[in-house]
Amino acid sequence: MKTIPDLETHLFELIRRASTKLPADVTGALEAGQAREAAGSAAATTLATILENVELSAKAATPICQDTGTPVFYVKHPWDYPVRPIREAALAAVRRATKESLLRPNAVDSVTGANSNDNTGDTFPSFYFEQWEEPDALRFDLLLKGGGSENQSAQYSLPHGALKAGRDMEGVKRVILDALVNAQGQGCGPAVLGVCIGGDRATSYSLAKKQHLRPLADKSSDPVLASMEEEITQKANALGVGPMGFGGETTVLATKITKAHRLPASFYVSISYLCWASRQAGMSVKGGRVAHD
Amino acid sequence: MIDLSTPISEAAIRSLRVGDVVSVSGVAVTARDTAHKYMVERWIESAPFPDSEDGKLLATLKPILAGGVIYHCGPVVRQDEKGKWHFVAAGPTTSSREEPFEHKVIAALGVRAVIGKGGMGEKTLAACQEHGAVYLHAVGGAATLIAQRVREVEAVYKTEFGLPEAFWQIRVEDFQCVVTMDSHGESLHAKVLADSRDRFNEMYGL
Known about the structure:
The complex is a heterodimer of chains A (293) and B (206). Chain A is built from eight helices and nine strands.
């Protein structure tokens, strides 16, 4: 496949879109939540403020949230398009976006505490490269996931004594809902949940996070998981945590669940809590043409 | 809507109750993890020499923090050609990380209002009650909206902490928040947590 000229410019545009524009399905779900909450309640007022901010950010082309998070790049490429120029273009785009106040300088050296000031550092930003069979085509998905929501993400190891959660699907549901009770308003709900049942610790977490790329209306192709997605969202909204933890009926906008084979000895459930500011953008390249979603 | 202007009196704080919607105007100072650790270690738990760097910064910020507002925020900023800073996006950060520090800051510096998100714990609630302070909740993620309420960046200190962690002294106008922890021992966060935990336990017969 021929190298894409100006890949950096296209990736800069991808970052700009992700940081300043909320996907339409998320805005729609927030509006539905606002309509569901009692008029004049703290929940309804909060959702109205959130929606006002979403509109203002798109107009002003400024970040929806000041915590522009860890940029996570999911890249699909054919065998004959090397990873290195993609990574270099992405790093350059991230540095430029930081300079232009579309990203907050967020990369902090974990030992010295020094901020690199340009959003690059040890494995920062984050990349997932996947070689696909599609010839002459690239796919980019960018997720900007804030720290407040990442801090509320959780990984449980079943069985869990205090919650009486065993190694079965009832136990899985129990720990997911427990994570939401623990999160309260700290992760900036209403949340979009990504869940992985099983896998080793690292795979489990990364698959849970990857669920955030699925559109809100997408249902798992596995009927058991599809019905669990529905059930978790419904039960979560009966917990009464509400937007920003103010109480109310809108705690979760959608739940996306996947599974991975596990060892007989291990049973992890990983929950990736994504804030309402579910910032992501996609871009496809085919036959030399670049198209943003 | 209740107006709060800095410096805020104790009487104004004592009249506020959980659920009140307030509009804050005046000077606020941003502080997050590094700044809180610094305030406690360098100003409160050890008295700095007046002519040391720490002592000078304390002398500069103490009059602003007394009766003043701390905002848990790490903004996205922009510097113009003349070197003047502007807030581009400035929503609140999660306040619970400052729980080990905030009660000491309230007690020692006389801060009257702490703005953040997600609420704080019992130590802060007790300090609010004892010293006459409130916790104000801003909408998490409402960064462009809140940045537009920041009329001027007056000064910035400790940029070596990293731009999100620095002390930003800002002038705000009509910054709307909800009182979620008052000076009478009430916390909306404690209430919603207890209520949702009850519902969870009921759901699963725990």
